[in-house]
Design brief:
This protein has about 375 residues and is α/β, with parallel strands linked by helices. The chain folds into two domains: about 190 residues, CbiD-like, CATH 3.30.2110; about 170 residues, no CATH class. About 35% of the residues lie in helices and about 20% in strands. The strands form six sheets. A five-stranded mixed sheet has the order 5-6-7-11-8. The longest helix is centred in the C-terminal third of the chain and has 20 residues. It is elongated.
């Protein structure tokens, strides 16, 4: 894949500071495929590579992986390159089929194989529509209108987007919980994938809150992992749609709930993750925040530990090691509660009153080690 930019500030295709290669969103790939198909439908041949203009002015070129033309429709496919981002759709074939429609009907969209259909309210696309987000629709429409203008006509077409293997890939995403059935969503706001920015994860957190609010769910839980998800769902007997896999992005969830209030929010996670939240960290990933072992030792001291026990805790190499020391002297319950209390206060400050919040500290085996109610 080649890319060209008008100036260095717009060259989002270059590696970032960490040397990681950036890639293209599903929406950008669909735009390129749709444009190539429409040019063939009107002009009889497929541009290869096909060039598109992305929202921030970047010009990107995509080679075609497949193409097909008949009297009434044209199809083109692009292989998605997500760069060095661990995107589940990296390497997937994104195909668009463009068919003529009656004059004045404009551009409409359909879900082909591997693209989901929206079934619940709260998402930016209404129920019954293919899960092609607003920005990719804008990108596709702009590209098709550009082609139509070259031929002196209006863009009256139906665009069917397909993603090879999308139905299976969707099982690895939040789509089933969001009520998107049958496949993946077509996403992307800038057209560019920034490695490890986890934009799609944060997007799924936001959409999960939106769906909960739109479907009358008044108690949502954010969990740092699968074990915490199961524990908090069981603890509160929550509907599956009420449990959000926030991963390390506690800040993304808290910020969004502050702007989109809910009656009740529960935060659930392991002792180590929540010890970082208790210290005010909003991104709990190990590369972006660290467990404060000395701080945990001080918490243990406030729980009544002797100076010898505190010194042993300070020598621990992990949060789990501190917890083992605390358990040995019968103070693990107090330490977990102290972390839960501090985490709740951090959450309260971040939420600014937008939700009542409680916190669960969960062990690796799923046992709830501490619960501090709202």
């Amino acid at each position: 894949m080649n890319e060209n930019a008008q100036n260095d500030d717009q060259d989002e295709g270059r590696p970032n500071a960490a040397g990681l290669r950036r890639g293209w969103t599903t929406g950008a790939c669909a735009t390129a495929a749709a444009k190539a198909a429409y040019e063939a439908l009107l002009g009889g041949s497929f541009p290869d590579p096909v060039a598109i203009r992305l929202p921030r002015g970047l010009r990107a070129e995509f080679p075609l992986a497949a193409s097909c033309l008949d009297e009434t429709t044209a199809s083109a496919a692009v292989i998605k390159d997500a760069g060095d981002d661990p995107d589940v759709t990296h390497g997937a074939e994104i195909k668009c089929t463009v068919a003529r429609t009656a004059p004045g009907t404009g551009i409409s969209y359909a879900a082909g194989n591997g693209v989901g259909t929206v079934t619940l309210p709260g998402l930016p696309i209404p129920p019954g529509e293919p899960a092609i987000n607003p920005k990719p629709r804008e990108m596709i429409a702009a590209a098709l209108e550009e082609v139509a203008a070259e031929y002196g006509m209006d863009a009256d077409v139906r665009v069917t987007v397909s993603i090879e293997g999308g139905e299976l890939l969707a099982e690895k995403t939040a789509n089933p919980r969001l009520g998107i059935v049958g496949g993946l969503s077509v996403l992307g706001t800038t057209g560019v994938v920034i490695p490890y920015s986890c934009a799609s994860w944060v997007h799924s957190i936001h959409r999960a809150v939106d769906v909960a609010r739109a479907t009358g769910i008044d108690h949502v839980a954010g969990a740092t992992g699968r074990t915490s998800e199961t524990a908090v769902q069981t603890h509160w007997n929550l509907d599956e749609r009420a449990v959000i896999d926030m991963g390390d992005f506690s800040g993304a969830l808290l910020k969004y709930v502050r702007a989109h209030p809910l009656p009740r929010l529960t935060i659930a996670g392991g002792f180590g993750k929540l010890s970082k939240l208790a210290d005010g960290h909003m991104d709990l990933h190990s590369s972006r925040s660290s467990v404060d072992i000395a701080g945990l030792a001080r918490r243990l001291a406030r729980c009544g530990a002797t100076s010898e026990t505190v010194a042993e805790a300070q020598a621990a190499v992990s949060a789990g090691g501190v917890l083992v020391v605390a358990a040995r002297v019968g103070l693990s319950d107090k330490l977990c509660r102290d972390v839960a209390l501090a985490s709740r206060e951090v959450c309260r400050a971040a939420l600014g009153g937008a939700a009542d919040v409680d916190v669960l500290v969960v062990a690796r085996d799923g046992e709830v080690l501490a619960h501090v109610d709202a």
